[in-house]
């Protein structure tokens, strides 16, 4: 009986400790550039940006949750000098927002 009480007390302590640590992480304020600044910087770097948004709030209230690069096949574009296709990869990133 004594072992069951000890195990139960330890289990409760672990669960409460996990909840407390999770609450501390959840209340931490986001740092870094805004969503609009992040998107503008990626576009200025020559990347095609695809935005995945969760929620319907305005962009200035959104936070960036993830930025992932995507490997795409090169896109053919015609070169005006000789008319032959030039395969040029287009760097693309997905920006996930929570609004």
TrEMBL record:
Residues 1-28 form the signal peptide. It comes from Mycolicibacterium fortuitum (Mycobacterium fortuitum). Keywords: Signal. The keyword Signal applies. This is Uncharacterized protein. The lineage of its organism: Bacteria, Bacillati, Actinomycetota, Actinomycetes, Mycobacteriales.
